[in-house]
Write a structure and sequence with these properties.
single chain, alpha+beta, CNF1/YfiH-like putative cysteine hydrolases, 18% strand
Length: 254
């Protein structure tokens, strides 16, 4: 996990090794809702923040209850009341957090779904884009919210797409293929693998570009979680019995 620091935002995508969790959650599980020992999860989260230089801000860590929706929570005020309100909204159910406040880390957890970190001058966002969020264009909604919060233009946004299930590993129903093809065009289907293999990464990139993010400003981890389970957790490959890796970001005080 080597963090990058664009626009003063430290960000990283974690892998599954180097933590405290045991068994099917081994070892850097960062998800608190998959059945793991919560003390291990908390220690893992602290470990990640320390690696990013944000260990002292553990008490301000924002982690939403991810519900495969398109709700975006925004924290744009550095008051304790604003933080508590954003925390409450996130825990009630959200799949993206926009933050323009310093020293407030944000972490979302994944095991095949698409992690998206967006960075703009003055703020950042972390989004969870499963198939439901992807077809709802949550990455585009998050881009719009980030730009409203920072005053940046979409063309100033940098996007980082983290490790997710690759198209060759993601066979879905004909109905889902039809829905995605209607929304994103025929190239969302990986026909080299078969008629029902869906490319979620392509759909997320398309949504970002449609939202005004420059194609050259989008970077993507192309390793498929389902075929690299020695590095990442995969809900599909591990039949639902696994931990979660994460996308995490924060903006340090200058």
């Amino acid at each position: 996990m080597d963090p990058e620091v664009p626009c003063g935002v430290t960000l990283a995508f974690t892998e599954r090794t180097g933590g405290f969790s045991k068994g099917e959650f081994a070892s850097l599980n960062l998800g608190g809702r998959c059945g793991d020992n919560l003390q291990h999860v908390q220690k893992n989260r602290q470990l990640v923040l320390e690696a990013l230089g944000a260990g002292e801000h553990f008490s301000r860590l924002l982690i939403p209850h991810q519900v495969h929706g398109s709700t975006v929570v925004c924290l744009s005020s550095d008051t304790s009341e604003a933080f508590e309100q954003a925390k409450t909204e996130a825990e009630a159910g959200a799949d993206a957090i926009v933050c323009t406040v310093q020293n407030t880390p944000v972490l979302l957890a994944f095991a095949d779904c698409v992690p998206v970190i967006l960075v703009a001058p003055g703020g950042f966002a972390v989004a969870h884009s499963g198939w439901k969020g992807t077809i709802a264009r949550i990455s585009a909604c998050t881009t719009e919210t980030l730009c409203q919060a920072t005053g940046a233009k979409p063309s100033e946004v940098k996007a980082y797409i983290g490790p997710h299930i690759g198209s060759a590993d993601y066979e879905v129903s004909s109905e889902l293929i039809q829905m995605f093809s209607q929304e994103f065009g025929p190239n969302v289907v990986d026909r080299a693998s078969g008629e029902r293999y869906l490319d979620l990464g392509y759909a997320v990139r398309a949504a970002l570009i449609d939202a005004g993010v420059r194609e050259s400003a989008i970077e993507e981890v192309t390793d498929s979680t389902a075929s690299t389970t020695e590095r990442f957790f995969s809900y599909r490959a591990e039949h639902g019995k696994c931990g979660r890796h994460a996308a995490v970001a924060y903006m340090a005080a200058k």
